[in-house]
Design a protein that fits this description.
By secondary structure, this protein is an alpha+beta fold. The chain is 44% helix and 18% strand. It contains four helices and three strands. Strands 2-1-3 form a three-stranded antiparallel sheet, sandwiched between helices. The longest helix has 17 residues. The protein is elongated and about 50 Å long. The N and C termini lie far apart (59 Å).
Amino acid sequence: MSFSYEPGPDLVHGDCHPSIRDSALSVEVQRLVAAELVIEAATNPKSLPKWCAFQHSNGGVVAHPDHDRRAVEICRRDCDVVQERAIYAVYPTPDELLERFRNDADMIA
């Protein structure tokens, strides 16, 4: 057997545990995933990568790809972070991030 990478859970090979396969194929999991995809499609019509953007109390901003769970969790635990936003962009620049936070603040006020 050759080594290869395929995204998603391995549900077709014999070494997949039945409980994992059954859970991934359950109606409830499929419904939750479908609902999440519909919501994301409405907010991200161009199918751009999702970034988690964080604004610090000193005004600085930083963004990490949504799939970089370790970096996102570190930022979420940081006491210096005052705001978090989901941003859809190819690669957001610091100026673009600051503009997004400013626009969101203007809409709230």
